[in-house]
Amino acid sequence: MPEKSEEQTALEKYLEFIRKLDLDQLKYELSSELGPLSGEVLGELDKEIIPPRIKVRISEDGMEAYINVVYPGKPSSLSLNLLREQLKANGVIKGYLEENLERIIDGKVYDQDVLAARGKLPESGKDGYITVLVNRGEDPEDYIDARGRVDFKRMRLKNVVQRGEVIAERTPAVAGINGYLVNGKELHSKAVNEAEFRLNPDVGLAPDNQLKLLALKDGVFFPDFTIRDINIIEGNISYATGNVRYEKSLIIRGDVKSGFSVECGENVDIYRCVEDATVTAGGDVIVKEGFLGTGKGVIKGKNVTVGHIKQQKAEAVEDIVVGGEVMYGELLAGGIIKVMGIKGIVIGGSLIAGKGIEVANAGNTQNVKTLLCAGYNNEIIVQDRKLEELDNYVHKVFNSVQIFRAAGSMEKLSLKTRGILQRLMKTKEALNEEITLLKTQRENEITAIVEREKPTIKVTGTVFPGVTIQIGNLKIYVTKEIRNKIFICHKGRIVEVAASSLSRGKK
């Protein structure tokens, strides 16, 4: 095929130019540039009526429509109605942006896309929900008065309700608002769900307000909206009642006297004191006054709250809160231990907690030995006791071997006696292996607790000499008074920081 000459190539370009030439647009541009002279230049063409050229484009998602006035017409006949008609003719019937359309007319915005209509996304509604109003556990700090004194007498067990009490409210669902595309197609909002009360013989709707749920009996409220009975004992646990064992919740409006026991499957609320007695609960224990005795009393529960403690033991799976002094007590908690208020002093004994300790003062001017230990738990204490037991066995084996050595030459011993010695040596070896294994497990567990819980010991008042501060395996022995400090583990050692610079959030 012969090659095209330069003249042929140029001609083809000119022809392409002519094919694409828009005469109406050319007239418009000349009129715009020449102004009053356009009539002289264009002659009779000026008198020709040229309709506007308008393009409409809809976005792929149908949420936006654009209008482009390529040429306003001659004489110009643009109007808002004309623009609306063009949009409608192209399937755009909702969401007109009138301000943008007016801008095209007033500002003579030509030959460019202008957003002319916008759809609307559907607005989500809100599902209905139930708000439970039952006391889920009171904050002990609410019972500290302006003078720093703590009074737990008004505290009650969590989830305890009385007949006629409003225990829950229902908030109805709020329907969403439908949206639309610019072509008018409706976009439906997501359906919402209504919340419904779980009605049963224990609860019922309020007669004057169907959005409120009432307790129909006294008792303990549970998440399934049932109310279980509470056993109420008017008076003391003593010879008049004997030991008490109850699978549900219990209220004792008196003391628990020395030598008696209370075993409760759920929560127990003791209005007065516990002496040298045993109180065990599957739930929480509240002792509104004191826990006093000669060291023979034990309280165990999920959470334990006591007015004050003297020479007694308290254990909690989670937290222990004391509203006054702890004198020579032994407290063990998997969570935190708080000794609150102006009387929140700890003298003697030990406080051991997994997550942290907070007290007002620790020790006294008599340098009484007192232990504050965080980053420990019951499992580690069990391991410590086991290690102590094994050490005692090792010591006994060692003494036995020494007796054999004192007896003289092995050749003088009978076969039976030699057999005993060999068994002693093997026992010693096995015990040492078990001790090594337990120590490794213990170290790993303590390290994990400290890294996970980052336990702290906070003393808002004074730490006196004689107090031991322990976090995990780290210890410091206080030899001079320290005031208003938080003790933390940092880079393998215990350091002090000002109590105001670091605070432990409420649980």
TrEMBL record:
Short name of any one Pfam family annotated for the protein: FapA_N
InterPro entries assigned: FapA (IPR005646), FapA_b_solenoid (IPR046865), FapA_N (IPR046866)
Highest taxon, organism lineage: Bacteria
Annotated transmembrane regions: none
Flagellar Assembly Protein A N-terminal region domain span: 54-220
Protein name: Flagellar Assembly Protein A N-terminal region domain-containing protein
